[in-house]
User: Which sequence fits this backbone?
């Protein structure tokens, strides 16, 4: 099976502190892959290394075989990888519609166009309407993103992430801070919008992880200690000791 | 049909306003003032392309205005010397091209970063250019500046632009098309991504855009339009001097945009008109006019950060709900209090200005609000103090009525 995303002996240090210690990982095209691990394990740092927010100290990141480590985020995005943020990271004083519209422009080829009226771009309008429908915010079209409810903002965060139709989607704790009902809706949304795509997600909610993921990697103290199917991860002694025991006890 | 009408009527109204204004205000000084207003409208809108649209606060925007003007004036002199048949109507474009060239050059450095770093670099570049204007005297003309004579350029359909009315219409036409062009820019993919950079420059990079590239393009456009404004100013006054690219001019355009309202496209237009009007009329009335500008600016920053446009939009929303009348009683109560504090402040400033600046040479007797007063006596000072303190106190007491009235309005 084709490998969509490959990490090869990835390391990241801040000064003398090593946060990511030789992570190697392969995510197959079309796979839903979850990364779990205790707080401070380096999950978000790993996300930043893959998406270009941080450059690795050593090692490689390959997207569809092409090296992307050290590239700026927009170059990585243009190669087909899009990510969301753990702390909602949208355009606060712009409407739902404008937020989503911004997310579609590049991938539809409009780039830095300063000669075409935005409202006449039919492809942009249609895609934005579709996105808004997808994330269930059509009724909130003209509401400023800053005044949406938390769950709506999280949905918008996902909408902005998938707006450009990237083939590899990375979600950083998409259901963090949600109640059970909202979380369930979010999972349904994620399942729907990542259909046929490769998904890499960091998630704390084990129900969500075991429900969504095809495979799970467990990151502890900057190392991947196991990568396997949900069922096998559940039975893995080392994982239980390092992480799951604590999580289920909490 | 109806939608294109709705789109077109503001532009028709604007064109008619530009065309008709000299019919109402036809004196020479009014025409000059309106010409300056047109130039400042372009300048302020170009500045707001950075501040309001892209979130970049420049402290050196006059550099592009001034360099545009200087290049334009040198171009005019060169065309006259070489007897090249270039009409004066093209000259603003020369200014724009110069602004663009310097914008690209300096933009490559300054737009690498946003926020405070950008502002600091813009300040540094502004100081760099304005201090070099005293060194490169052949280009900047030293203290006297560079002069020209626009009537010696080739006539344009028989117009030699000797009279102010011809210059006014030249400014008006350029101003109209610059407003239209800058407005159109806000409605393009690039324009929208400028807003996105203003809102969240980081996230922009995760939807495929380089925030730096967007800042750079916005900066270049902004410098282009500032250069056009400078070129028009060179044509209008036939002189450019170093002041026009200095820190004071950069501060003035910030003042105009902010007071007009940076959150609305039309804000800087209102600000440019108001500040130009005050600048010209107020400086005839009082020596302390710059102090009033400062106070006006502080007042807006503290109490109306949305500027004039923001204030008007709030009231427009209330009017659309047909609830403007609900505000009337509260406004009626607060208006006399505000007027008293304003009058008191003016008295104190004028008395102080007299005593500190003029009394030694011209004596302490002065006219204040049409009355003869002696700035060295206690009476007028006391009255000013009472008016100011009483007015401020009363405003403070009555203000909850105003906020209450707005509250009743939004909840209704």
Assistant:
């Amino acid at each position: 099976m084709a490998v969509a995303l490959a990490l090869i002996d990835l390391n990241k240090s801040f000064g003398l502190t090593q946060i990511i210690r030789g992570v190697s990982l392969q995510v197959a095209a079309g796979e839903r892959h979850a990364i779990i691990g205790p707080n401070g394990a380096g999950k978000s740092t790993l996300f930043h290394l893959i998406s270009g927010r941080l450059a690795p100290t050593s090692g490689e990141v390959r997207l569809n075989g092409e090296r992307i480590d050290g590239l700026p985020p927009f170059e990585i995005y243009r190669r087909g990888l899009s990510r969301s943020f753990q702390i909602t990271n949208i355009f606060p004083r712009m409407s739902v519609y404008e937020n989503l519209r911004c997310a579609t422009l590049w991938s539809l080829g409009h780039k830095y166009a300063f000669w075409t009226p935005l409202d006449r771009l039919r492809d942009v309008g249609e895609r934005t309407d579709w996105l808004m429908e997808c994330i269930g915010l059509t009724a909130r079209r003209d509401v400023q993103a800053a005044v949406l409810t938390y769950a709506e903002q999280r949905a918008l965060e996902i909408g902005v992430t998938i707006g450009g139709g990237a083939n590899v989607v990375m979600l950083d704790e998409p259901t963090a801070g949600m109640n059970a009902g909202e979380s369930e809706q979010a999972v349904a949304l994620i399942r729907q919008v990542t259909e046929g795509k490769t998904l890499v997600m960091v998630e704390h909610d084990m129900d969500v992880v075991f429900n969504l993921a095809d495979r799970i990697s467990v990151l502890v103290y900057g190392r991947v200690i196991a990568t396997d199917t949900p069922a096998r991860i559940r039975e893995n002694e080392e994982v239980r000791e390092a992480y799951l025991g604590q999580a289920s006890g909490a | 049909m109806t939608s294109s009408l709705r789109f077109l009527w503001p532009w028709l109204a604007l064109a008619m306003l530009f065309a008709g204004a000299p019919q109402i205000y036809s004196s020479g000084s009014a025409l000059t003032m309106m010409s300056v207003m047109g130039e400042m409208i372009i300048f302020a809108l170009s500045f707001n392309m950075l501040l309001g649209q892209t979130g970049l606060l420049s402290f050196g925007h006059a550099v592009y205005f001034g360099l545009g003007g200087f290049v334009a004036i040198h171009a005019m002199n060169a065309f006259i010397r070489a007897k090249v048949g270039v009409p004066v109507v093209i000259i603003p474009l020369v200014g724009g091209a110069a602004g663009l060239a310097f914008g690209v050059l300096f933009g490559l450095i300054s737009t690498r970063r946003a926020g405070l770093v950008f502002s600091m670099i813009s300040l540094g570049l502004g100081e760099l250019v304005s201090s070099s204007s005293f060194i490169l005297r052949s280009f900047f003309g030293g203290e006297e500046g560079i002069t020209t004579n626009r009537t010696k350029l080739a006539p344009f359909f028989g117009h030699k632009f000797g009279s102010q009315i011809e210059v006014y219409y030249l400014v008006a036409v350029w101003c109209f098309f610059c407003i239209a062009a800058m407005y159109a820019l806000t409605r393009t993919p690039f324009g929208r991504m400028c807003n996105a950079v203003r809102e969240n420059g980081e996230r922009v990079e995760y939807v495929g855009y380089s925030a730096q590239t967007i800042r750079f393009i916005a900066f270049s456009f902004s410098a282009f339009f500032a250069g056009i404004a400078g070129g028009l100013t060179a044509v209008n006054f036939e002189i450019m001097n170093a002041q026009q690219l200095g820190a004071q001019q950069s501060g003035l355009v910030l003042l105009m945009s902010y007071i007009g309202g940076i959150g609305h496209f039309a804000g800087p237009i209102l600000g440019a008109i108001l500040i130009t009007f005050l600048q010209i009329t107020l400086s005839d009335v009082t020596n302390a006019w710059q102090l009033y500008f400062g106070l006006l600016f502080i007042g807006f920053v503290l109490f109306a950060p949305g500027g004039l446009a923001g204030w008007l939009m709030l009231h427009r929303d209330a009017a659309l709900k047909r609830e403007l009348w609900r505000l009337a009683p509260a406004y009626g109560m607060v208006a006399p209090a505000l007027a008293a504090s304003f009058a008191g402040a003016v008295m104190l400033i004028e008395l102080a200005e007299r005593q500190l600046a003029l009394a030694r040479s011209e004596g302490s007797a002065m006219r204040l609000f049409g009355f003869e007063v002696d700035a060295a006596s206690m009476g007028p000072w006391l009255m000013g103090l009472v008016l100011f303190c009483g007015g401020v106190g009363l405003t403070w007491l009555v203000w909850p009525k105003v906020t209450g009235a707005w509250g009743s309005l939004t909840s209704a």
In short: Chain B touches chain A through 26 residues (CB under 8 Å).
